[in-house]
């Protein structure tokens, strides 16, 4: 009977997620309370801070084998990785790099290319994770920073499973749970954002890409542009701006804004740089293919209005072989702090394929402008 009850609960949770597909992200976030999904934080109650979407089935103890080998439609385009590609992979939190593109990163390396991973945040705002890890009810700012340091170390161990080294990793150190507010109310360097978790308005982590900068939207775009100029990527892989997690959608918009500015300025080689998006938090993803019908309707930020730049995105499939899937599993196991609070959710991504949205040049140029038009407030 307990097993049956658990299965019924899981089915109801999945039904809730699928039903939420038609709801704008803002409406969903307003109605949600409690723990967020991978790498984020509980609702803080701070004015102007979007509440992360809760995925109700995260802690359900249900089998995941049924999610692993979903059949692919014959019409799905296959992503073919050329040799010697320079891949720049953006991850909102430690573990998203593996969930969204762990197979692709390994394929690029196997084909003689290079990979650099950029983490926007250190995942240091995950309250339930901090409580579980340190067995404390009321964490201090120092506890959150200690947790972020631990997650950085886990991230480096994870990518080492693919043969990458510390020099292939970049930690921007921006605030977990605070990327969306940078668009809304903290764009200017004169109005920096202060993390409610670390109580800092800049990164205190020693290995941060640039420690002196304060948390603002304009600064973050400059940081991403700097990374791109240094690495000159052929492919940029980023969270899809339609992802329902605010840190993920905001990351996608920030990366596209940086790429848009580089392309608009005529800087080489960015006129030829290709952009691919991935999803982590989207109704019915990755447990069925129903998400593909709905994802091309919402625009940037998961909204059902205010622009259509991302409509008609071509989704391509990267088949993952057994060695790459094992590499993905080993990397995910290195994110040990996430196993207890998020284990069942993480296992959903252990499939023999990954999906990416291939953006057209016009989408690269228009999508961040749509995001700004929807979320950026005057005088922010």
How would you concisely characterize the structure shown here?
The chain has 380 residues and is α/β, with parallel strands linked by helices.
Sum up the overall morphology in one term: globular
| Overall average residue pLDDT | 82
Q: Name the helix and strand elements from N-terminus to C-terminus, one letter apiece.
A: HHEEHEHHEHHEHEHEHHEH
The count of DSSP E runs of length 2 or more, i.e. the number of strands, is 8
Strand content: 5-15%
Report how far apart the termini are: 54 Å
State Rg.
19 Å
- Please work out how many helical segments DSSP would assign: 12
Q: Order of strands side by side in the largest beta sheet?
A: 1-7-8-6-5-2-3-4
Sheet with the most strands, sense and barrel status: 8 strands, mixed
**Content-based structural category:** alpha/beta
Low-pLDDT regions: 1-75
Question: Which percent range fits the helix content?
Answer: 25-40%
CATH class: Alpha Beta
Count of discrete domains: 1
* CATH level-4 homologous superfamily: LmbE-like
The assigned CATH architecture is 3-Layer(aba) Sandwich
CATH topology: Rossmann fold
Word description of this protein:
By secondary structure, the protein is an alpha/beta fold. It has a single domain (2-51, 77-375), classed as Rossmann fold, CATH 3.40.50.10320. Helices cover 39% and strands 12% of the residues. The protein has helices at 2-19, 25-30, 96-110, 127-134, 141-160, 179-184, 217-231, 246-264, 291-295, 322-334, 339-347, 361-375, and strands at residues 77-78, 86-91, 114-121, 169-174, 235-239, 274-278, 314-319, 353-358. An eight-stranded mixed beta sheet has the order 1-7-8-6-5-2-3-4, with helices on both faces. Strand 5, helix 8 and strand 6 form a beta-alpha-beta unit. Helix 3 crosses helix 10 and helix 5 (141-160) runs antiparallel to helix 10. The radius of gyration is 19 Å and the shape is globular.
């Amino acid at each position: 009977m307990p097993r049956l009850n658990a299965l019924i609960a899981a089915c109801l949770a999945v039904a809730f997620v699928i039903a939420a597909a038609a709801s704008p992200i803002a409406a969903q976030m307003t109605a949600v309370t409690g723990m967020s999904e991978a790498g984020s934080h509980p609702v803080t109650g701070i004015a102007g801070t979007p509440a992360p979407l809760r995925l109700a089935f995260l802690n359900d103890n249900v089998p995941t084998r049924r999610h692993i080998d979903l059949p692919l439609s014959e019409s799905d385009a296959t992503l073919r990785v050329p040799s010697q590609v320079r891949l720049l992979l953006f991850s909102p939190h430690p573990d998203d790099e593996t969930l969204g593109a762990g197979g692709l990163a390994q394929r690029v390396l196997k084909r003689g290319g290079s990979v650099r991973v950029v983490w926007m945040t250190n995942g240091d705002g995950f309250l339930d994770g901090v409580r579980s890890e340190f067995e404390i009810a009321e964490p201090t700012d120092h506890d959150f920073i200690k947790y972020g340091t631990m997650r950085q170390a886990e991230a480096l161990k994870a990518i080492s499973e693919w043969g990458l080294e510390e020099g292939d990793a970049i930690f921007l150190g921006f605030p977990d749970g605070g990327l969306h507010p940078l668009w809304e109310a903290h764009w200017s360097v004169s109005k920096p954002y202060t993390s409610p978790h670390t109580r800092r308005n800049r990164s205190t982590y020693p290995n941060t890409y640039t420690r002196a900068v304060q948390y603002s939207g304009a600064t973050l775009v400059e940081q991403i542009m700097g990374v791109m100029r240094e690495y000159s990527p052929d492919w940029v892989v980023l969270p899809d701006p339609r992802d329902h997690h605010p840190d993920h959608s905001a990351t996608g918009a920030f990366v596209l804004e940086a790429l848009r500015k580089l392309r608009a300025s005529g800087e080489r080689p960015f006129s030829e740089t290709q952009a691919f998006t991935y999803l982590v938090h989207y109704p019915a993803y990755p447990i069925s293919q129903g998400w593909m019908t709905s994802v091309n309707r919402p625009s940037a930020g998961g909204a059902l209005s205010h622009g259509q730049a991302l409509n008609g995105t071509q989704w391509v499939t990267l088949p993952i072989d057994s060695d790459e899937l094992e590499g993905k599993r080993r990397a995910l196991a290195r994110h040990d702090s996430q196993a207890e609070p998020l284990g069942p959710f993480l296992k959903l991504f252990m499939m023999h394929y990954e999906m990416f949205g291939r953006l057209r040049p016009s989408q690269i140029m228009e999508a961040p402008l749509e995001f700004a038009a929807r979320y950026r407030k005057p005088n922010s």
